[in-house]
Amino acid sequence: MTDTQDSLARAARLSFWSGPVSPQPLAGGLTNTNCLVEDRGRKYVVRIGGDMIEHGIIRTTELAASHAAAEAGISPIVVHAEPGAMVIDFVEGRSLTPQDVRDDRYLGRIVELLRRAHRDIPRYFRGPAPLFWVFQVIRDYTHTLEAGESHHLPMLVRLLDTADRLEKAVGPIDLVFGHNDMLAANLIDDGKRLWLVDWDYAGFNSPLFDLGGLASNNLLSPCETEQALELYFDRPLNDEMRRRAMAMTAASLLRETMWSMVSELHSRLVFDYPAYTAEYLGRFKAAMLAFDALDR
């Protein structure tokens, strides 16, 4: 039995169902398996996955964040949870693409949704809340790569030195409750409003990390990136904020690169992680060239 088949069988056995169900796999999901289930005339998304310590994913934290995001009106409602499984109301809509994120018709709405998430979710979050500090994540990934004797080891010292430089450039931060995985696919348009889903990496962070992730994961142009920052902070950018934001955007790309390097060692999913690593390493190098040009 494959991992996907095992996850579908696990989803079918959940105690929430009124009777036999037939889970159907959904595309996406690089840290869990997602499937669609119909029961009692309603549709649900089931997320199957355990803790992933190598990525800092703790499912009880994800569940607490998902509940809080639902109460804040940011995400659909969690209707049931068991160890290693979460059942969420299905949203009739479509996942966004990077092209959508770059569209003026979406960018402002996404930034406003992020601002609401950052502000409102802490009001509803229950239990110990984590800190997602990207530079500590990078340092921890380094230890994981060393322990796994990754073939990327020769470049780690240079990457860590660069991360230290970026951390100093970011400087003191304001704390908000971050999503910390701003991929276009985590945004859903139901025709009336936007939803933000998948809280695997949720935790307190600088708002610059979500904004940087939004820019870097969706290939926003420098003009579009500045537009998003000015919409979020409701003021024109000065040179200091521009430099700090560029540093965090580069850090978000480095973290994504190292996430993929670690996944090359530990993930059992069928996915071309080496190609993903190469793509994001290229994006990171380009971001550092832009940062260096600004720093001259």
From TrEMBL:
InterPro entries, sorted: Kinase-like_dom_sf (IPR011009)
Q: Give the species.
A: Kaistia defluvii
Q: Which Pfam families match?
A: Choline_kinase
Please state what the protein is called. Thiamine kinase-like enzyme
Q: Which domain of life is it from?
A: Bacteria
